[in-house]
């Protein structure tokens, strides 16, 4: 069984096209790493006026426990550095994220 996780991130001004281009060329090894860590059906939407990115991903029940391993992975850390000039980041170059709480779902 998979659950959904949603969160927001924030783009820097004038970086929309480059953000999309880099994701259009996402590294196969990063996709593999996400799948290996139970993340699938991953979509990112953009609210252009606010430059807010809204991400939704399906995660396996073990994903939360493996999330620290994912953050420590060299591939993930290289991706963060690759994307850091486009978005708000933490000191370790990971994107600043804000978890969202599910308040409604309809099948």
Automatic annotation (TrEMBL):
UniProt GO cellular component terms: cytoplasm
Pfam families noted in UniProt: rhaM
InterPro entries: Dimeric_a/b-barrel (IPR011008), L-rhamnose_mutarotase (IPR013448), Rham/fucose_mutarotase (IPR008000)
Xref: Gene3D superfamilies: 3.30.70.100
Swiss-Prot/TrEMBL GO biological process terms: rhamnose catabolic process
An example molecular function term from Gene Ontology annotations: racemase and epimerase activity, acting on carbohydrates and derivatives
Keyword Cytoplasm: yes
Keywords, comma-separated and alphabetical: Carbohydrate metabolism, Cytoplasm, Isomerase, Rhamnose metabolism
Highest taxon of source: Eukaryota
Protein name (database record): L-rhamnose mutarotase
Organism for this UniProt entry: Rotaria socialis
